Amino acid sequence: MIRNGFAGQDPHSGSGEVPQPPTPRSREEVASGTGMAELHESIARLLASRGQWRQAYHHLRSALDMMSSDKPAVPEQLRSEVELLRREHAKAREESLRDSLTASYNRRYLDERLADLVAENAMTGEGLAVALIDLDWFKLVNDTYGHLFGDRVLQRVVDLLQEALPDGAFCARYGGEEFVLVLPHILPNSAVQVCEAARQRVEHFRWETMARGLGVTISIGVAHEQGTGGHVSGEQQLISADALLYAAKRAGRNAVAYRKGAEVRLAGAAAERVTETGRRAAGY
Domain GGDEF, which positions (predicted)? Predict the structure, then answer.
């Protein structure tokens, strides 16, 4: 509980008195007093949003009491309390949007942010890429080294995926060993290059430093929308990326698949592979 010497006594501290609700007053009436009343009101709102109703009541009562004082001072301690509560609220919000294992963003953040970026891309036409990523043969890693070790591998892969991402891009865990890279304001070729660079970082990482004989690769399907000629939802773009991921898997894994017109292609060294699956995915 916040204790600042003037926020009021805890009604359950032994006095036996339960505080009654304050006489309702408008926000304008409270704010017309001084900065101290405003700060008390701000703290009350923040505490109430966290379910700390008792403390919120005391601060609101203090704000109302300020109305009877002509020239109250605004202590720095009160300002610090407001700032501290705001930081704690922002931290709690950020933690609610992160995957607890890998610290990448979670599905909730992906859905919220992707919807905003799709709408923005529809207006600006600056380009938006969504890359769906899957670890190759990850079940074998878990079966061979154990699930706790598999968790360490996932954490390392996320670190490698997030290296050198463009401004505004982010990584989110889609589920299990699947992740998503969202790349806003980007051209198709640049999106493929970012994904191919991520694939190479994973492939060439010295996995043997974690376990003898260990090797990890990823497959990626990257779908790009320029934002013109019709609205494509985030879900539709993820479906397209999933079809391209399927093409990369069927082409031998450890590859980045993308669409060039009606044709599905593979990036980098995998470009020489030829598969019928690629043609099938183009019409997915």
Answer: 126-261
Amino acid identity for residue 181 in this structure: L
Please check whether residue 2 lies inside any domain of the structure.
no
Look at residue 275 and give its three-state secondary structure. Answer: coil
* Residue 120 annotated in active site: no
Name the β-bridge partners of 222.
131, 258
> Who contacts 164 (Cβ-Cβ below 8 Å, separation ≥6)?
194, 197
| Contact yes or no for 152/83 (Cβ under 8 A) | no
Q: Name the residue with tokens 């593979």.
A: 266
DSSP character for 22? P
The model's pTM is 0.69
Can you read off the two tokens belonging to residue 9?
A: 């006594």
283 in a domain, yes or no?
no
Q: In this structure, is residue 140 part of a structural domain? A: yes
Q: How far apart are CA 100 and CA 96, in angstroms?
A: 9
Q: Which residue has the tokens 């090797």?
A: 215
Q: Which of 81, 177, 196, 225 is an active site residue?
A: 177
Calculate the dihedral angle through the C-alpha atoms of 246, 240, 255, 145, rounding to the nearest 10 degrees: -60
Q: Is residue 81, in this structure, part of any structural domain at all? A: yes
Run of H or E including 146: none
User: Per-block average pLDDT, block size 10, for the chain (284 residues)?
Assistant: 38 41 45 62 76 73 65 62 72 82 96 94 94 98 97 98 96 97 97 98 98 97 86 93 97 96 93 59 40
Go through 111-134 and write b for each residue having 16 or more CB atoms within 10 A of its CB, e for each that does not: eebbeebbeebbeeeebbbbbbbb
Residue 128 and residue 90 in one domain: no
**Strand pairing of 218-225 and 256-260?**
parallel
